[in-house]
Amino acid sequence: MLALFQTIDLALNLYTWVLIASAIFSWLYAFNVINSRNQFVDAIGRFLYNVTEPALRPIRRFMPDLGGIDISPVILLLIIFFIRSLMWTSIYPLVA
After folding, report:
1. Number of helices (H) and strands (E), helices first, in the chain?
2. At 14, phi and psi to the nearest 5?
3. Which pLDDT band, with edges at 50, 70 and 90, does 95 fall under?
4. Integer Cα distance of 38 and 95 in angstroms
5. Of the candidates 60, 61, 24, 66, which has an alpha carbon nearest to the alpha carbon of residue 45?
6. How far apart are CA 33 and CA 84, in angstroms?
7. pLDDT tens digit sequence for 9-39
């Protein structure tokens, strides 16, 4: 049971870093810091978009329009942190 929780925690931790990378990539892309015509950069951008968009889309549907500011990654990160802390507090009595 502990191995299952550790695997889920690792997957959530990796997804957290992918979300952060996606947000940073979108800022770099928006401000033309990176070359969008480069195939490697385009491949990274498509990968990050395809991995994060299915989780961010439902959050964006319920968010009010903030005038070009997208806080859905922050909300998703808060949800992930909540799930991780809830998961570890529920398993802590079994480990201790």
Report:
1. 3, 0
2. -65, -40
3. low
4. 49
5. 24
6. 34
7. 999 999 999 999 999 999 999 898 998 899 9
Going by the DSSP 8-state scheme, the letter that residue 50 receives in this structure is H
Q: Which two tokens stand for residue 67?
A: 């005038």
- Please tell me the pTM assigned to this model: 0.88
Sign, CA dihedral 83-85-86-92, equals positive
Q: What angle do CA 86, 92, 96 make, to 5 degrees?
A: 175
Q: Do 59 and 42 touch, CB atoms closer than 8 A?
A: no
Separation of alpha carbons 61 and 48, rounded Å: 20
Of 10, 6, 13, the closest CA to residue 80 belongs to 13
Rounded Cα distance between 72 and 59, Å, is 6
Integer Cα distance of 39 and 85 in angstroms? 39
How is residue 65 annotated by DSSP? P
| Under 8 Å between Cβ of 46 and 22 | no
